[in-house]
Amino acid sequence: MSQSTRLLLNRTPSILNLYRRALFAKGLKGSTPKLPTKRITLANAQVDTKKVSQYQNICGFKQNNNKLPMTYPHLLAFPLHLELMLLKDFPFAVMGMVHVRNEITQYRAIKPVEIMDVSCHFSDIRKTDKGYDVDIKTEVHITGELVWESISTNFVRKKTDMTAALKPHKSASKTQYNEKEFLNLSSSLGRRYALISGDSNPIHLFSLSAKLFGFKGHIAHGMWSKARVIASLQDKLNSDACKVIIDFKLPIFLPTTIQLNYHQQDSTIDFDLRDQAGSKPHMTGQISAL
């Protein structure tokens, strides 16, 4: 990638300013969307240990001063994702994007005192019968070593020339898991997580603000849900080097109680999040030791 396609940042962009810009970003018109080739890098990133402790607490991780939670680097990358989607040649409106899939690979534990270079770029776009899936790849390097990477897939609804594929017949029975635990989510969860993560999207804050964007009420952050699952399951693998792949399903409206269901086989755990009754899926995924 040439030097002209790189943007180097020395400090984290303001989330509030990014959301303000996102409200007015309309995207480009055209039948064949193309993604910007620019790579955005936040150099010499350091974490606030107090915020890390707060993050551990709200996501259910054990307090640990020696390593970051596996999902924490996403907080550093999220403003860069918004910067990418606010580039003038990005073809879609940011506020229409929906986070539908997330994959994280951690090659070793990251210490809170370590200085990181966080780099993001668009890695793929796929046309579907309902719109487009857009992948953002994030890489975290420490003194040149790749220690963490992720792929966040965002979906935008848009008319395409693809016809809908026939859906396979759904079995009446759902996947059975050996283990189950219930999680109680308060109405204030989204506001408390927003203060720590910086993701202050109105759909997560209050019922009224969420209704302005077409939701019947405010919903939990998807990345909080992923972090909460990892907090419960990663220690069972006895490995800091892990890969976690999840697909977001139905939104989690707050307040509520949800089920975490899982089954472990050797160094792999399959899991899902469902509503309290166990009938509606919120998230499915797998965590594996490397």
Please tell me about this protein's structure.
With 290 residues, this protein is α+β, with helices and mostly antiparallel strands. It folds into 2 domains: 3-157, Thiol Ester Dehydrase, Chain A (Roll); 179-289, Hotdog Thioesterase (Thiol Ester Dehydrase, Chain A), CATH 3.10.129.10. Helices cover 21% and strands 34% of the residues. The protein is built from 6 helices and 11 strands. The protein has an 11-stranded mixed sheet with strand order 1-2-4-5-6-3-8-11-10-9-7, with helices on one face. Helix 2 (49-59) packs antiparallel against helix 4. This is MaoC-like domain-containing protein. InterPro entries: Fatty_acid_synthase, HotDog_dom_sf, MaoC-like_dom. Residues 183-281 form the MaoC-like domain. GO terms for molecular function: fatty acid synthase activity. One of its GO terms (cellular component) is fatty acid synthase complex.
Give keywords.
single chain, 290 residues, alpha+beta, Thiol Ester Dehydrase, Chain A, 2 domains, 6 helices, globular
Percent in strands: 25-35%
| Biggest sheet strand line-up | 1-2-4-5-6-3-8-11-10-9-7
Report the CATH C-level class of the largest domain.
Alpha Beta
From the spread of the alpha carbons, the general shape counts as: globular
Low-confidence stretches: none
Count of DSSP-assigned helices: 6
Q: Work out the number of β strands.
A: 11
Count of individual domains: 2
End-to-end C-alpha gap = 29 Å
CATH architecture of the largest domain: Roll
The CATH homologous superfamily of the largest domain is termed Hotdog Thioesterase
Oligomer: single chain
The mean pLDDT is 91
Structural class: alpha+beta
- Secondary-structure element sequence? EHEHHEEEEEHHHEEEE
The CATH topology annotation of the largest domain reads as Thiol Ester Dehydrase, Chain A
